[in-house]
Design goal:
It is built from 3 helices and 8 strands, in the order αβββαβαββββ. The protein has 157 residues and is of the alpha/beta class. It has 2 domains: 30 residues; 125 residues, Immunoglobulin-like, CATH 2.60.40. Strands 2-8-7-4-5 form a 5-stranded mixed β-sheet, with no helix packed on it. A 3-stranded mixed β-sheet has the order 1-3-6, with no helix packed on it. The protein is globular, with a radius of gyration of 19 Å. The protein starts with a helix and ends with a strand. Bound molecules: copper (II) ion. The site of copper (II) ion has 5 residues, from loops. It comes from Methylophilus aquaticus. This is Azurin. Its main location: periplasm. Transfers electrons from cytochrome c551 to cytochrome oxidase.
Length: 157
């Protein structure tokens, strides 16, 4: 390969990655919903949820891909400020399974799904306008003991 050919391919690969990078970004920006899977091994398949400011409403669909019952391996998805996560979890645990481990009318909770077991799905929708630009937001499962691994970041884009 001579110098010219090498440069040529290098330029092409930069152009290609710029094109595909932009394309991916455009797809993400257009989507006002996301599906997060939860498993029997106590994990979410997603570590970060990008929420476009341009969305009037944003929906998170939670899908439990396992088979275990919700008493044993139940999952939900709760959104709050990072700094509120621990108190929200503590109050959720007191509220119990009948409340999906979320304290009723908890103003620190921006959105949450019902607690579901294997094979079930649940959704929640919120307005991205409720997110303060300067705060850090997280999503997590409030089933007792799960949030230490079942958690991720909410990123406003
Ligand atoms: Cu869980």
């Amino acid at each position: 390969m001579n110098k010219y050919t090498h440069l040529h391919w290098h330029t092409l690969s930069i152009l290609a990655s710029a094109f595909f990078g932009l394309h991916q970004y455009a797809l993400a920006a257009d989507s006002c919903e996301v599906t997060v899977e939860a498993t029997d091994s106590m994990t979410f398949t997603t570590k970060e949820i990008a929420v476009p400011k341009s969305c009037k409403a944003f929906s998170i669909h939670l899908k439990h891909t396992g088979t275990m019952s919700k008493n044993i391996m139940g999952h939900n998805l709760v959104v709050s400020k990072q700094t509120d996560q621990q108190p929200v979890l503590q109050d959720g645990m007191k509220a119990g399974a009948s409340q999906s481990f979320v304290k009723p009318q908890d103003v620190r909770v921006l959105a949450f799904t019902a607690l579901i077991g294997g094979g079930e799905q649940a959704s929640t929708t919120f307005s991205p306008a409720k997110l303060e630009v300067t705060a850090n937001y997280v999503f997590f499962c409030s089933f007792p003991g799960h949030a230490s691994v079942m958690k991720g970041a909410i990123k406003l884009i």
